[in-house]
Amino acid sequence: MKTTIKSAIFTQYNKARSCGAFDARRCNRSIGILQHGQQRPYHTTITTCDCPDSLNGHICKHRIALAIAYRSFEQLCKTAYSIVINGKIIVDGEIFSSILDTATAHKIAQSRLTPRHVNGAIAYHYEGN
Ligand SMILES: [Zn+2]
């Protein structure tokens, strides 16, 4: 992971750990998912997951990882020079965590940045001060 992506993920990980809403061990395990993707094909949203842990009533590591990815991407949209979304999410030339779906990434990016079509992909460029 590039420093900026890594930094955003760890900032949001620390917030997730310290807010008290999530189990600390599951927070720790979510980092592996953020770095390497989900090993099993669970269907995960911020509020639901079909893994055994979630079905037992816990906020599982998959949901925590997705929440951290969502918040990290929001954070990166404020500072990244360029974001390209075309099957994969590329932030300043580096692949962002694979667990955030591209439709959600578009929604987050569009709330902050202006999209442009570049070689079939949709790119967002920072043009601020
Ligand atoms: Zn899960």
Largest sheet: 5 strands, antiparallel
State the helical fraction: 40-55%
Number of domains: 1
The ordered H/E elements are HHHHEEEHEE
Sequence of strands across the biggest β-sheet = 3-2-1-5-4
**Low-confidence parts, pLDDT < 50 over ≥5 residues?**
none
> What is the count of DSSP helices, taking H or I runs of 4+ residues?
5
Radius of gyration: 15 Å
Global outline: globular
SS-derived structural category: alpha+beta
Mean pLDDT comes to 89
Strand portion: 15-25%
Describe it for me?
By secondary structure, this protein is of the alpha+beta class. The protein has five helices and five strands. It has one domain (about 5-125). Strand 4 (about 115-120) and strand 5 (about 120-125) form a beta hairpin. The radius of gyration is 15 Å and the shape is globular. The two termini are about 25 Å apart. The chain binds zinc ion (ZN). Zinc ion (ZN) binds near residues 42, 60, 62 and 63.
Layout of SSEs?
Blueprint: H1 3-18, H2 24-36, H3 52-55, H4 61-79, E1 82-86, E2 88-91, E3 94-95, H5 102-110, E4 115-118, E5 121-125
Antiparallel strand pairs: 1-2, 1-5, 2-3, 4-5
Helix pairs in contact: 1-2, 1-4, 2-4, 4-5
The structure holds zinc ion.
The site of zinc ion has 9 residues, from helix 3 and helix 4.
